[in-house]
Design brief:
The protein is an alpha/beta fold and 238 residues long. It has two domains: 164 residues, Alpha/Beta hydrolase fold, catalytic domain (Rossmann fold, 3-Layer(aba) Sandwich); 54 residues, no CATH class. Strand 1, helix 1 and strand 2 form a beta-alpha-beta unit. It is globular, with a radius of gyration of 17 Å. The chain contains ten helices and six strands, in the order βαβαβαβααααβαβαα. Helix content is 50%, strand content 14%. This is Alpha/beta hydrolase.
């Protein structure tokens, strides 16, 4: 990724219960290698995470004359794609990392996990919920959850619950998105099944998919962002 994209900025949204710190660790360097400025806003608080994020993208887009590259991780990818479908006139492409489902959340693993964590936080409190949620997971993921969940604080349960029931873009709507889309998935991630990412890639008219692994992301967070950015470049050239 050595070519430079003139005067292009990317707004990337975090996933459920995550934060802008993780977004920067994933996307800052891959985007900087192309000369693209990363804008990583903090997630709206509580239940406003799903309704406030599109408004936030509208506000940021209003400060730029040209189009924006938008994207996100998990829930953030869903929300960025929804915005791109509505504002293709202002969109230079979408970076989709770890899409979690399509349409209604229903029994999608990520939705079930978010809903269960929301109940646990509400019932047992943040400290007890963190102890359960980080038990047996990779140390890097436990550290990410601990930092981000503590930053969400009292708004965490409402944020998790809102995310767990928010519908993702329907596969039948994705063919309407004409801008280039780069998709990144982890082949060993049961919460964000790679089959979902492949379904997105097949439904989108101008998309590429690159796969990595959670194990690789644990060593170097930017592996995930690099996969999404490289996939976007592939889609852009097609």
């Amino acid at each position: 990724m050595t070519s430079v994209m003139p005067r292009l900025s990317a707004v990337v949204l975090p996933g459920t219960g995550s934060d802008e710190i993780f977004v920067r660790s994933v996307f800052a360097r891959p985007l900087a290698a192309l000369g693209i400025e990363l804008i990583a806003p903090p997630p709206p608080k509580g239940a406003d995470v799903v309704t406030g994020s599109p408004r936030l993208l509208d506000e940021i887009a209003g400060t730029f004359d040209g189009p924006l590259l938008v994207g996100g991780i998990s829930l953030g990818a869903h929300l960025a794609t929804e915005w791109a479908l509505r504002r293709q006139d202002r969109c230079a492409g979408v970076l989709v990392a770890l899409p979690a489902w399509n349409g209604a959340a229903d029994a999608a693993p990520a939705a079930v996990a978010a809903g269960g964590c929301a109940d646990l936080v509400a019932r047992e409190g943040l400290a007890a919920a963190l102890e359960v949620a980080t038990s047996g997971v990779a140390p890097w993921l436990a550290a990410e959850l601990t930092r981000a969940w503590r930053r969400h604080g009292e708004q965490l349960a409402a944020s998790l619950r809102a995310a767990s029931v928010h519908p993702a873009p329907e596969l039948t709507r994705l063919p309407q998105l004409r801008v280039p889309v780069g998709i990144a998935a982890c082949a060993d991630d049961p919460v964000h099944p790679v089959a979902v990412a492949r379904a997105w890639q097949q439904a989108l008219p101008n998309a590429a998919l690159l796969e990595t692994t959670l194990r690789a992301v644990g060593v170097d967070r930017q592996v995930l962002g690099e996969a999404a950015v490289r996939a976007w470049l592939q889609a852009r050239r097609s």
